[in-house]
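Problem: given the chain below (270 residues), write out its structure.
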Amino acid sequence: MASDYETIRVEVSDEGIAHIILNRPRVLNAINSVMMREVNEVMDALERAPDIRCFIVSGEGRAFSAGFDLKESAAAGERSVQDWRRVLEADFDFVIRFWDCPKPTISAIHGHCIGGGLELAVACDIAIAGEDAIFGEPEVRFGSGIVAMVLPWMVAPKHAKDILLTGNDQITATRAAEIGLVTETVWEGHHVERAFEKALEIAAAAPLSVELTKRAINRSFDMRGMRNALLAAVETDLVIETSGGAERAEFNRIRKEEGLKAAIAWRNSR
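Solution.
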């Protein structure tokens, strides 16, 4: 595992807690290919290490994460179906890795937690949100799709549809806790502190019991069809991303001619 990264910071405590900090604050920790590669490298190195008991993921600066990097996507230009499949499968694997990790994972959330950022946060076993956190999945508002549709497995179906079919990206931390989107809310600025408290509780437990219990819980979701449903959702997203549509075309036109901020302003005005 490298000690120097471009898009993340990694800190490992004496108690065996690995803290991954998303570190692209100027772009609200938008998830790009470099960040995915670096996080995967950390997970490869640490998730099977016997002295690592828990992972925490948080964001530097004003937000947890604004989701997958739209500028990087735009710079890639036109993609074939095969290209889109590779991109979406890589995005899916990145998000679901936190669910599949043999060690417990905790997301410590503040500021905006949007799109792929929300998917990453809820794929973690425990989600701690500061009172300033804002959640949402705006993809349908600009003709895109959900990469890892974990949210419907975390909240009641009507709440999931209310969020995903409207593209709501203004869900407060209080509301997120009410519907089970996050585990708990804490005072603004105390999200990482509380995540470490919870991680220390996990680290104090018997590691084999913790790992096998997490595996058993996840298996119960798979028995209900979660894995197949998530993979089917990736196929649905592939259809969406390759089908175009008037909203997507207009969003991309504004993004190309006037910039991403103008495109998002157009999306928000609809």
